[in-house]
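User: I'm curious whether this sequence folds into something compact or stays loose and floppy. Could you predict its structure so I can see for myself?
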Amino acid sequence: PERPSFVRRDFQLLTRLRPIEAAFLDRLGSSLDSRQRYHAFMLSAVLNGGILSTERLSALLGLSADAVQMIDGVLWATLNLPVSGSPLRWYPDALTATLLTKVLENGPLLHPEGNVRAGRAVLWSRLEATLNTLELPPWRGELNELLRAVRDVARGKRYLGSNVAQNMALSNVAGNGAASPFDELSPRELEVAMLL
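Assistant: Here's the prediction. I'll summarize afterward.
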């Protein structure tokens, strides 16, 4: 039987984050110039460092070197959140902190495209530029979907794109004969889905 198009499309959405993470870690094993180190720091902040909202991502783009401090071996930075206007003390994970330290070794924290308070479109273009600069697979979706996927994975949950969840619910309501969209997957597709 022909599989519904949403099953294949959304199954691909489910598997998109892991290749980016794997390619990113592989890329960190190679030599990076100062611009690539900056982009690696930015991506690590999203994938590992808890920068999981557009507001925090925008604040990270405005981060200055004087907002980064180390006390008793713990690195932290003050992010000025643009929407709430309040500062947030951010403690990056070890990988992100190491990359930030390497970026700061080259001098002041200079963002390649300048320091700006950014809207969603600008944030998305910056994130795409980061993936391109590091020669990583592109994310073909929306910024919010990427941030949600990272949040869910960080919490130990399985990530389902919004289209997947909606289509699963609608397929059960429509009563198309299949008990679940997963019934439409091949044995190998189901095996891979269960690993997510």
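Summary: The two ends are 25 Å apart (CA to CA). DSSP finds nine helices and three strands in the chain.
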